[in-house]
Amino acid sequence: MTVAEQATAAAFAPIPVSVAAYVPRDRARGLVRSAFPRRRSRLALTRSAAEFARLFQTTLIDAAILDVGAPNEDLWRAAELARDFPSIPFFALTPLRAGDAPVVARCMALDFADVITEHVDDAVLRELVLPHTFTHRFQAALETPPAALGLETALRRAVWERLVAHAGRMVRTDTIAESLGVSREHLSRTFAADGAANLKRTIDLVRLLAAAELAKNPGYDVGDVARVLGFASSSHLSTASQRICGTKPASLARLRAIDIIERFLAGRLRSRT
Question: How far is Cα 115 from Cα 85, in angstroms, rounded to an integer?
């Protein structure tokens, strides 16, 4: 099998979805646990708004689920975070009783992505959430690499698919190489052949695209973005931002994906391997 065929055929395990859930009721906790089992998800269950809010500062959250079956002021403090993190979809989980219309209306006013009805939607809860998650939307938006990047070979496209599947989280070159069945050295050399961008720079580009999206959230500052994406520090993110698009990370929120890619193509394709 050629390298190109290996790149096309090699299996690649999907990234576990990361879900933050505010679920005080026992039934709601059990339902969410069933929908997002450990082997396929990173699920954090909380019972207070303060605990729920801390999750957004420590890890990249793909989706948030709030049990609105017994609404109180603490719940609404948690729900208000939807306005601080518009890149992260919020879902209301409710038994949808006759008197719950005001609760649902308040969730919609906070721009919740959807309302999940207990008993009715139990079996499809995961399927309702997954298409809206940050990682899924990031991957879908960038699944086909921009033509200007010149990722025309099967190997380069396979690498790109693996990078965008991580949605800005750190991924090592040896991990990518192993998934493709080639050595790290062969991968780096082949990816950067004929004057193309080298692999390390391309990894940084995808991470900066995710950082720019997260930086648009009012609830995140530069330090938060660096932390949830796994940069070593804010300075590390700053160095990557300067290297890839010639700007400070504080300016990332003003840049579109196409702006970052155009800056990357303007002489920032190569680094030491």
Answer: 18
